[in-house]
Write a structure and sequence with these properties.
Blueprint: E1 33-34, H1 46-54, H2 68-78, E2 85-88, H3 91-102, E3 108-112, H4 118-125, E4 129-133, H5 142-147, E5 153-159, H6 171-179, E6 186-190, H7 206-211, E7 215-220, E8 232-235, H8 238-247, H9 255-266, H10 268-289, E9 295-297, E10 303-307, H11 311-323, E11 326-327, E12 329-330, E13 340-344, H12 348-364
Parallel strand pairs: 1-11, 3-4, 3-5, 5-6, 6-7
Antiparallel strand pairs: 2-8, 7-8, 9-10, 10-13, 12-13
Helix pairs in contact: 1-9, 2-9, 3-4, 10-12
The structure holds pyridoxal-5'-phosphate.
Length: about 375
């Protein structure tokens, strides 16, 4: 007989974590267009697909554990020392490893209020406390972040540009944030949308990583046509790379992903086309929607956040789009912005569809 009242118990805090809520998809078999997860509207680099297929010939063999092929390609294209790169099973893998390595019981991590919803999960999973800091008009506020630092602070999580708001901090602002931190606090710059930024005063964070001993930059292939392959990478000082390499899964990036990632990195033509398409339709959709009834927060990412007069209006907009086969992202439950929707930049047809439906909805309301 087993006594059900005695059973394995998760570590303190684990059951207080709200699970991550992914963007919705259409019903299986429906041809709904998904604009809820910031995926590529131009598919995958053909070169990456070809590389992925060649890996099918070697599935019986363990992948090389340090993702050398991928690190070499990244080092070449971005001008980085390959020894300063760690690859992961999505950048999610690396964010978890950073939390596990630098946070524990009694520690605090600081983030802006509408920052990426994975940060509270990984912070609490490591036994630490997440400190949420108010923003200024949906943008991270450097003074407020610095004011929230205590002697318990060990990590600052900063998505730049940020998801789900699309806003960014200039290089000068990120440097001001870094300059105000004690050297034992790790600044994690999550540049998941770096490939899409046009703003001239933006920096992806690589220079700061090179100059400081407490800054890491995290990147992903997910928003560039390879979300299914799960590939992320980070660049950091040697001592951080060494610590992460001690605890990461020994074969954390599979062979098809390593080969596809390396090919995608070198396919600069495809990446440029994606960036150009995104900038064009991001600007177009922003101009179409921005009005008295809908506010579009200026975005540097591959999505826009639209703010409606109230939560009810946003819910109606979500439903109306969904009925017409366009699935966007609700940001009430996971981000506390119930009057907003996040809309990924998709194909021309999808963008024209979204604009037409929302403008008609505003007119009749
Ligand atoms: C999408 C996203 C990621 C990427 O996650 P993956 O695990 O690489 O798919 C990381 N950070 C932010 C801010 C994101 O929006």
């Amino acid at each position: 007989m087993s006594d059900d009242s005695i059973r394995p118990v998760p570590q303190p805090g684990i059951l207080d974590i709200a699970p991550y809520l992914p963007g919705k998809s259409g019903a299986p078999g429906s041809n709904a267009i998904k604009l809820s997860a910031n995926e590529s509207p131009l598919g995958t680099s053909p070169k990456a697909m070809e590389a992925f297929r060649t890996a099918a010939e070697h599935l019986e063999i363990y992948p090389e554990g340090s993702s050398k092929i991928l690190r070499t390609a990244l080092a070449e294209v971005h001008g980085i020392d390959p020894d300063r790169i760690v690859c992961g099973n999505g950048s999610d893998d690396l964010l978890h490893l950073l939390a596990q390595t630098y946070l524990g019981e009694g520690d605090e991590a600081v983030m802006n209020r509408y920052g990426f919803s994975v940060y509270p999960i990984i912070t609490k999973a490591a036994g630490a406390k997440i400190v949420m800091v108010e923003e200024t008009d949906y943008t991270a506020d450097v003074d407020a972040l610095l004011a929230a630092v205590t002697e318990k602070t060990k990590v600052i999580w900063l998505a730049n540009p940020n998801n789900p708001t699309g806003t960014y901090l200039s290089d000068a602002e990120v440097r001001r944030l870094h300059a105000g931190l004690r050297p034992d606090i790790l600044l994690v710059i999550d540049s998941a949308y770096a490939e899409y930024v046009i703003a001239a005063d933006y920096s992806v964070g690589l220079e700061l990583v090179g100059e400081a001993s407490n800054v890491v930059m995290v990147r992903t292939f997910s928003k560039m046509g390879l979300a299914a392959a799960r590939i992320g990478w980070m660049v950091g000082p040697a001592h951080v790379v060494d610590a992460i390499n001690r605890i990461r899964g020994p074969f954390n990036v599979n062979l098809p992903a390593q080969l596809a990632g390396a090919a995608a990195t070198r396919d600069v033509e495809f990446n440029a086309r994606l960036k150009e398409h995104n900038a064009k339709w991001r600007d177009w959709l922003t101009a179409e929607l921005h009005s008295n009834s809908m506010r579009v927060v200026p975005s540097q990412a591959n999505f826009i956040m639209v703010l409606f007069p109230d939560a009810e209006f946003a819910a109606k907009a979500f439903e109306t789009l969904r009925e017409r086969g366009l699935i966007v992202r609700e940001i009430g439950p996971s981000y506390g912005i119930p009057e907003g929707l996040r809309i990924s930049i998709g194909s021309e047809e999808a963008m024209r569809g979204v604009a037409g439906i929302l403008k008609a909805l505003v007119k009749i309301s």
